Amino acid sequence: MPEDSIRPPARNLNVLSVIMGGGQGSRLFPLTRDRAKPAVPLAGKYRLVDIPISNCINSGLKSIYLLTQFNSASLHRHISQTYKFDHFTGGFVEILAAEQTFNNTSWYQGTADAVRKNLAHFANSDFDYMLILSGDQLYSMDFSRVIAQHIANKADLTIATIPVSRDSAKSLGIMQIEIDGRISRFVEKPKDPALLDTLKLDANSCAKYKVEGNEDHFLASMGIYVFNRSVIFKLLENNFDDFGKHIIPTAIGTHRVFSYVFQGYWEDIGTIRAFFDANLDFAAVLPRFNYFDMTAPIFTRARFLPASKINGAAIDHTIIADGCIINHARISNSIIGLRSFIDVGTQINRTVHMGCDYYESAESIQEKTSRGQPRVGIGRYCFIENAILDKNVRIGDNVVISPAGKPENVDHPLYYIRDGIVIIPKNGIVPSGTVI
Predict the structure, then answer these.
(1) Alpha carbon separation from 54 to 62, 131, 160, 291, 297 (Å, rounded)
(2) Per-residue pLDDT tens over the stretch 219-259
(3) In CATH, which of 3.40.50.970, 2.40.10.340, 3.40.50.300, 2.160.10.10 is domain 309-430?
(4) Helix, strand, or coil (residue 210)
(5) Could you tell me which of 117, 188, 129 has the C-alpha nearest to residue 154?
(6) Is the Cβ–Cβ distance between 169 and 201 less than 8 Å?
(7) What are 46-71's pLDDT values in tens digits?
């Protein structure tokens, strides 16, 4: 059923939203070395988890659980300081961390297992539909439209899908649909060209869902699911660990499973390269993700910081978050995060600087410099390109950071290289004169 033919219902749907954030985030290491994946900073001032939560709030859905288990302290702090609803709306954003019980002593083994181990909590909630979301994707979607189509189709399960190219289809879960949108087949990461050919969207489906272009298109799962209450409990009466690998293929043969075809920007930012590119795209003239859309704002923690101060810098295609001090530097195609300090003569290009959690006092600066350590921030006459600088890094004067001429992946006491991008880890120290 085409999206524009579905009229969203009144925003009083009884929906429970569940955001999956429990993975170790190994593909985002070292950004996940000291924090949970959903807590990784994004675009200078946000966190990854702000995206699915904001989509829920903008869709009128305010009953939200976040499932996590790794390095969850900073995530707990962000959620508790950010998402507070008043007593009259009845909304909540709560974290359900993996816990040992008399029945279960293991951690989450997969997405389905994470939901199963929290069914006792969910059973006490009054909901008709469960919306399951990923915690590491960048997109803007009105979930009320997904729910409306789910109801109109009398579906047991609806899976949000997006048209992708042949190359992208090889690394995603691909759906085959009937003309009414019902899913008849699911194949995980089909690499065989002959198999892939059997899954491509036909001309009638492309016309119905307004999929443009002459190349072949395939419908990929976005990892966004809507279950009827009774169905989610029924489908988890087993030991299957994962929705995409186990639950969905089984459900297609036994239940009414439909596709919701989404046409818009969507990016899985679970790898360092995808994370880096998605961040830099925020600084483009016309970013693919419209974070200036005030009909669907991204919510995050209100920090009450001063405006940034620029002392004679040259800045081009760059986002500068609140509370920064930049002294006569040259910055291009970069993201400069909260409370960043950048000193005289430094050149920064294609860099994601996540900023700082605090302002360093004069006493602390004096004490650190007396021991030969740089202050928090970036010192004088540095050259930095194609890099990610995590929170609270200390980079001295005359430092060069660049992946040029180096292997794609490196582990070093001062830095890491992943996908050809240099990463200075959280609280990292790079002494003056260092050349990376």
Answers:
(1) 10, 14, 18, 11, 7
(2) 999 999 999 999 999 999 998 888 988 899 999 999 999 99
(3) 2.160.10.10
(4) coil
(5) 129
(6) no
(7) 999 999 999 999 999 999 999 987 77
Q: Counting beta carbons within 10 angstroms of the beta carbon of residue 169, is it exposed (0 to 12), middle (13 to 18) or buried (19 or more)?
A: buried
Number of helices (H), then strands (E), belonging to the chain: the values are 12, 27
Strands 330-336 and 314-320: parallel
Q: Does domain 3-281 have CATH number 3.90.550.10?
A: yes
List the domain boundaries for the chain.
3-281, 309-430
Residue 235 parent element (H or E): helix 229-235
The pTM of this model reads 0.93
Preceding peptide of 30 cis, ω within 30°: yes
Cβ contact 306:325 at 8 Å: no
Alpha carbons 163 and 263: distance in angstroms, whole number: 7
Is 158 within 8 Å of 141 (Cβ atoms)? no
Residue 284: name the closest of 350, 223, 220, 231 by CA: 350
**Burial degree of 207 (CB within 10 A; 0-12, 13-18, 19+):** exposed
- Give me the count of residues in the chain: 436
User: For 292-348, what is each residue's pLDDT tens digit?
Assistant: 999 999 999 999 999 999 999 999 999 999 999 999 999 999 999 999 999 999 999
pLDDT at 100: 53
Type of residue numbered 16: L
Contact call for residues 312 and 330 (beta carbons, < 8 A): no
Which residue reads 């089909």 in tokens?
A: 190
